[in-house]
Write a structure and sequence with these properties.
By secondary structure, this protein is of the alpha+beta class. It contains three helices and three strands, in the order ααββαβ. It has one domain: Histidine-containing Protein, Chain: A, CATH 3.30.1340. Strands 1-2-3 form a three-stranded mixed sheet. Strand 2, helix 3 and strand 3 form a beta-alpha-beta unit. The radius of gyration is 21 Å and the shape is elongated.
């Protein structure tokens, strides 16, 4: 009987500990939700920026609090502004700015 109880406790413990992790990424469901929330907040902040239409075309990806920006913008100033806006979002630990400035001409 003790062996059965001990086995059940071990199974419950392991299910609790391992159940919250995604085996593909090793990240918990909570981390994925946080990253999705950060991505949404960054996109909203970029979309709300006054006087710029190209910031809405920026691709935003978040993993572990690190926000990656990619795509093309009109100027170096827009590239820097996008990174600044992303950094202002709560939960952002780091911004990787892979934005390219569109060649004029």
């Amino acid at each position: 009987m003790r062996l059965l109880v001990r086995s059940v406790l071990v199974v419950v413990f392991l299910t609790t500990v391992l159940g919250g992790c995604d085996p593909g990424t090793g990240r918990s469901v909570g981390q994925k939700v946080d990253d999705a929330s950060i991505t949404a907040a960054v996109k909203a902040k970029l979309a709300a920026e006054q006087g710029t239409t190209t910031l809405t075309g920026i691709n935003v990806d978040t993993s572990g609090g690190t926000v990656s920006l990619s795509g093309t913008v009109e100027s170096e100033a827009m590239k820097q502004r996008a990174a600044t806006l992303a950094q202002q979002v709560e939960g952002v630990a780091r911004v990787v700015n892979n934005l390219q400035v569109r060649a004029s001409g």
